[in-house]
Amino acid sequence: QIRSCTASFVSRKAMAGDEEQQELNLTVVCSKVGNPQSFPLPASLSGKELKARLQDLLCLPSESSLVLHFQNGSRNSAKILVEEELTLAAQGVEDGASVTVKVNAEEVRPENSALRESIKEMGGHSYYFAHANENDRALPSELRYVYGGEPIKLDQAGYAGAEKLEIKAPVTSITKYSWADEGEFVCVYISSEGESEAIEAAGDGRSGQVEVSFEAKSAELRVKGAAKEFVLKMPVLFGEIVPADSKHRVSAGKRLTLKMKKKRGGTWTVLFRSK
């Protein structure tokens, strides 16, 4: 039967005055033991000696075999096998580290793991071949892991891959309007009685809510509201107009007027030419 427990290290200097003797307060948490218990242990202990101490402190049977892994920093950091012949300090056990104790478990070293066995047996055909040249200790832990701290928000303005997505408002067609031939001009009227939402969205027209484009044979009106965009398209006018002499007027809360200057004289009997 395999039992697992986690031990958290918090270091302090020994009070005896010998600065080279670092003492670790080992807090043991084990489901079989009950409440957490603390035991002072020197950092000069070898991995083998640490196993013996834990076996005694946890009241484990003398025939039990222990496998220990230490973990520096947060729970997301790498777990490293505790070597029997080296001291805790020599193996890089840091202040605040944790130790996982497995009882009667088979010791699996990185070079003998299922991943390595698969690569050894199947070579380039192994599912894990991407890890073939991986060196777990190629970089020191402080460069491979970041412990704690608040999440850092990316600066979107300085992030080359960040693109601002423009959310477009739904478009509604303006269908209720009137028109009249007034000699040199042909006028189109949109009133609050027929298109109240469009007139409200237009406001006084001074903040760019109203956009009008005139072409020789067409015209288009756009009113940009906070929640909707209102459009009146006039693609094929009855006659040609002079875009430069055509204009629009906004009567706040009442009406929108388009005045299109005729290129030639004559009366318009319809606003659009049949296709």
Arithmetic mean of pLDDT: 78
How many H/I helices?
Answer: 4
Spatial arrangement of strands, main beta sheet: 3-2-1-6-4-5
**Helix content class:** 10-25%
Overall structural class, as computed from helix and strand content, comes to mainly beta
Sheet-strand content, in percent, reads 25-35%
What is the radius of gyration computed over CA atoms, rounded to a whole number of angstroms? 40 Å
Distance linking N and C termini: 87 Å
Structure description:
There is one protein chain. 11% of the residues lie in helices and 31% in strands. It contains four helices and 14 strands. A six-stranded antiparallel beta sheet has the order 3-2-1-6-4-5, with helices on one face. The chain starts with a strand and ends in a 14-residue tail after the last strand.
